[in-house]
Specification:
12 strands, binds adenosine-5'-triphosphate, 9 helices, binds magnesium ion, Rossmann fold, alpha/beta
Length: 276
């Protein structure tokens, strides 16, 4: 039996945001934003601090109310059950604080929501998830004792446990919503985690990630949404969005672009008049 009742829902491997508006209290934070993400691609959301990236992500994950439309698998996310959402999408928040004295295995184990799993399978899943984020053997460590970057990777391992298979048994894609997944990481782990996320997309899942690092975004994102002051400034394929004038406008800061290596990945650097 289909436990997600997908038979009643239009088949869709898309996240579609149409004219989304989000208010907190009386203040409208996000205005009229539209974009979409397909399963199999990595979509990045960039833009200056305070431009509404986290607010938009929270509406997509069901944490904040919205007007307009945000559909996952053809269904308004605001109407999807908490159980369905838990099975189909994992969320890495921008800041995750845990005040209980849990060890790493216990934190990661919070993501194992499949109650059919026995103890051994559960322990194996936790171990595999930790290995994926470069924290092999960290199970018994106290979460509070870890560095900021280690904690960030433990949280990602928790999210991976929740939506381990990028595609569910019935063929529906699962989704990763990541809010600045590499902000506390060194360069090696930044690449490791970005590769992990883009591998999830390559295996058929969907990935939407809020990013500050423009060069990692240029390297890994298929399409990019640029936010500015709560609105969509641009949305499109990487090479169309990675333009010096567009990015300079977004960040209100002169930026220049060069191309790196034979792959021609755009490399963003401060504009000439910002040096010295
Ligand atoms: N709970 C809240 N109450 C009032 N204002 C809020 C609340 N949450 C966010 N805001 C405001 O909404 C705007 C957008 O915040 P948001 O967290 O979405 O920005 P962001 O683009 O994710 O920024 P950053 O890159 O710094 O994380 C900011 O001006 C912020 O002060
Ligand atoms: Mg944010």
């Amino acid at each position: 039996m289909n436990q997600f009742k997908l038979a009643e829902e239009p088949s869709s491997s898309e996240l579609r945001v149409e004219r989304a508006c989000i208010s907190i209290g009386r203040v409208q934070i996000v205005q009229d934003v539209s974009f979409n993400a397909q399963a199999g691609e990595f979509v990045a959301i960039i833009g200056p601090s305070g431009s509404g990236k986290t607010t938009l992500l929270k509406a997509m994950t069901g944490e904040l109310a919205y007007s307009g439309s945000i559909r996952l698998a053809g269904m308004e996310t605001g109407k999807l059950s908490a159980e369905y959402m838990a099975q189909m999408r994992g969320v890495l928040p921008q800041a995750s604080q845990i005040s209980f004295p849990l060890n790493v295995a216990e934190v990661v184990g919070l993501g194992v929501i499949d109650r059919r799993q026995g103890r051994d399978a559960r322990a194996r899943r936790i171990k595999d998830a930790l290995a994926k984020v470069g924290l092999h053997g960290f199970e018994g460590r106290g979460y509070q004792e870890l560095s900021g970057g280690e904690q960030q990777r433990v949280q990602l391992a928790r999210v991976l446990c929740q939506v381990w298979e990028p595609v569910a048994d019935d063929g529906s894609p699962r989704w990763l919503f990541l809010d600045e997944p590499v902000s506390s990481l060194d360069i090696k782990h930044q690449y490791q985690i970005m590769q992990l996320a883009s591998g999830y997309a390559a295996a058929g899942g969907g990935v939407v990630a809020v990013m500050h690092d423009l060069n990692l975004t240029a390297t890994f994102a298929d399409r990019i949404l640029v936010m500015k002051a709560g609105k969509r400034l641009s949305f499109g394929r990487r090479d169309d969005v990675m333009q010096a004038d567009l990015l300079s406008d977004a960040y209100d800061f002169p930026l220049a672009l060069t191309r790196f290596g034979q792959s021609g990945v755009p490399l963003v650097v401060p504009g000439a008049d910002t040096a010295g």
